[in-house]
Design brief:
Elements: H1 2-26, H2 38-57, H3 60-65, H4 73-79, H5 81-91, E1 105-111, E2 115-125, E3 128-137, E4 144-150, H6 157-161, H7 173-177, E5 181-185, H8 198-207, H9 213-228, E6 234-244, H10 246-257, E7 261-267, H11 272-279, H12 299-302, E8 310-316, H13 325-339, E9 347-352, H14 360-370
Helix pairs in contact: 9-10
């Protein structure tokens, strides 16, 4: 019985001994309430927020990158080369992949009193085409200028061309009526067999391979120009570009990349993203959020990559304020590049009576003057 009692006593003491050992082990290490360091994490967030704001306002990187030479138009263009290279690197242009050694195809789809219409398929990247509508004016008697006519978000060459052209008005046929050859390419905004956010998905995936949808869609224009200027009808020294809304974005960034475009009209776009950024940084759509978009490559300074070539910026007086007001603030800064070269007539900022639409009257007068 004594042995049993002794054994029972040992078992009854085991929990106490275990607790004693645990307490002893805990005491060997420094400990602290985790929540006590929460203020440090809050401070880290505040520091990073302040850092972003400081860098966003810092102009020193831009001034170091771009040191304009105003001694002549040619000198200015040469001084912008490093800035252009930085912009191309930021968006991932040129896109990776060997350009295919395939022939372009032009299938006639229609004809009317002013032109002959073709469906053009121009190979630009592995398995990728620049597809659009190519129009030869019937008035053609010799080589003629080429106009790139770029539709807006959710649109298409067909929307901009057929059944009155919607809010594009005469953005496509207006060029043909004036004897210009037209290429109206298709960019990706929707595809019936794919999700509604297919543009964002493709852009996200492109960034993982070193490019962006902006870079590829610029290439759908610039690589197409490489092909189109081989045609005997096209005057390679006289290329212009017009675009509405999203097309206005491309009418700004494509001439910034390709100096062959001698005159551009950017309608209902200029300053829109800068306005969004000021209100709420992340309200800027993902495909506009390329590296340094708001520090080095804002709309006003991208104009320096077009200058001394001619640029008209349009905005509708009854369009949404977001498509006009910030652009009005930025326009003098853009115009200053031309003023310092004494080339004021090559830059126009036009507020026309109308809404979110292409203004034919001011656009074609400007194109005819400078092309």
């Amino acid at each position: 019985m004594k042995a049993v009692s002794a054994l029972a006593l040992v078992f009854s003491l085991l929990p106490t001994l275990a607790c004693g050992q645990t307490d002893s082990k805990k005491s060997e290490y420094f400990n602290q309430n985790v929540a006590d360091s929460n203020p440090l994490r809050n401070e880290q967030a505040r520091e990073l927020d302040a850092y972003i704001q400081k860098m966003a306002a810092d102009q020193s990187r831009f001034k170091k990158l771009f040191q304009p030479d105003y001694s002549s138009a040619d000198a200015f263009a040469k001084s912008a080369q490093a800035y252009r290279s930085a912009f191309c690197q930021s968006i991932g242009y040129p896109p990776p992949g060997k350009r295919p050694d395939l022939k372009a195809s032009y299938q006639q789809i229609g004809e009317d009193s002013i032109g002959i219409y073709y469906r053009a398929m121009l190979p630009i990247l592995p398995g990728v085409h620049s597809e659009g509508i190519f129009i030869l004016p019937k008035s053609l008697k010799e080589k003629a200028p080429l106009i790139i006519s770029m539709h807006g978000g959710g649109g298409s060459p067909e929307v901009a061309l057929f059944n009155g052209g919607a809010n594009y008005n005469d953005m496509v046929r207006g060029a043909v009526k004036r004897g210009y050859i037209v290429y109206a390419p298709q960019h990706l905004f929707r595809a019936d067999e794919f999700p509604k956010d297919i543009r964002r998905q493709i852009d996200d995936r492109m960034r993982l391979i070193g490019t962006s949808i902006t870079a590829v869609e610029i290439a759908k224009i610039t690589y197409a120009i490489d092909e189109l200027i081989k045609r005997p009808e096209v005057d390679a020294s006289r290329i212009g570009m017009v675009g509405l809304s999203y097309g206005g974005y491309y009418a700004l960034v494509t001439p910034a990349v390709d100096p062959r475009i001698k005159v551009a009209v950017s309608s209902c776009y200029f300053g829109v993203q800068e306005g969004r950024y000021e209100e709420e940084e992340l309200s800027v759509p993902p495909d506009f959020r390329f590296m340094d978009r708001m520090t080095l490559f804002n709309d006003a300074d991208l104009v320096a990559l077009i200058c001394p070539r001619a640029l008209q910026i349009q905005a509708g007086a009854t369009d949404r304020p977001s498509h006009r007001e910030k652009g009005k603030q930025l326009a003098p800064r853009a115009k200053a590049y031309y003023e310092q070269l004494n080339l004021q007539d090559r830059f126009e900022h036009v507020i026309f009576e109308g809404g979110h639409e292409f203004n034919d009257a001011s656009a074609w007068a400007f194109v005819e003057k400078h092309l």
